[in-house]
Specification:
By secondary structure, the protein is mostly helical. Helix content is 80%, strand content 0%.
């Protein structure tokens, strides 16, 4: 039974990407800006809350109440994502510089690789929390699902970001959908690999939890919040709702 529940949780982020990619069958151009901002703000709130209650607090508890391991792991997660953004174009740089790089890479191709690469640490984060649940590491199934759901909500607009421009450029709806969906396939793969590795290095679970928290917070600050700045009111309110919802679920059901 546990394996079936975990499998569903691992596939949620991939489902979010797939549903976003499916927008090519229903939308002519793009998701309404206000809806996109609300989704990003809500996902940011859920993920920020999950990073604290589902990742950092369990990491500290498993380290006998010491914040040292959690602090080091958190900073390592931030540093890892920072390094990735230096090595490869993230969503902002891909959007800003693609127009001058038509001879080398199309905008949608850059976005495809940027989103795919950024999905790897997100998949790792999901794998870590479900590994903690399976190993009775002070993580409940609701905490694990909340993080997975937050990432799935974030992945929805990302899938649309890839698929809709492909369709607009003259590609078929089916091809655009497939490309958008493929960008998210790395997440369940990274999640499964993380679970398999965590069973071998169980003593490192607090470090992995805090590392995932750092990676998640980096994604929130670097990617999600700037994208919702066009209408800060909607983004802020959605963030607060997501944060409180996750905190409430964790408190009542955790």
């Amino acid at each position: 039974m546990n394996s079936e529940i975990v499998l569903i949780g691992l596939l949620l982020p991939f489902l979010g990407t797939s549903l976003g990619s499916a927008c090519v069958f229903f939308l002519k151009n793009e998701i309404m800006p206000s809806v996109n901002i609300a989704l990003l703000g809500f996902a940011s709130g859920v993920m920020m809350s999950a990073a604290v209650w589902s990742l950092l607090i369990p990491a500290i508890e498993q380290s006998s109440g010491s914040p040292i391991v959690a602090s080091i792991g958190f900073l390592a997660g931030v540093g890892f994502l920072l390094l990735m953004d230096r090595l490869v174009p993230h969503l902002h740089s891909a959007s800003e510089h693609a127009e001058g790089l038509h001879a080398k890479l199309k905008k949608t191709t850059m976005l495809f690789f940027a989103v795919t690469l950024h999905n790897i640490p997100e998949g790792m984060a999901v794998g870590v929390v479900f590994a903690g649940f399976l190993q009775n590491g002070n993580i409940t199934i609701m905490e694990a699902f909340a993080l997975s759901l937050g990432i799935a909500l974030q992945n929805f607009p990302e899938g649309a970001i890839i698929s809709l421009p492909l369709k607009s450029a003259g590609g078929s709806k089916k091809k655009a959908f497939i490309y958008g969906t493929l960008s998210g396939i790395v997440e369940p793969i990274a999640s499964i690999l993380t679970i398999l590795l965590s069973s071998v290095i169980v003593q490192a679970l607090p470090s992995l939890l805090s590392f995932a928290a750092g990676a998640m917070v980096y994604v929130i600050i670097e990617e999600l919040l700037p994208e919702s700045s066009d209408n800060s009111d909607i983004g802020t309110v959605s963030f607060a709702i997501g944060f409180v919802l996750m905190m409430t679920l964790d408190t009542l059901l955790g």
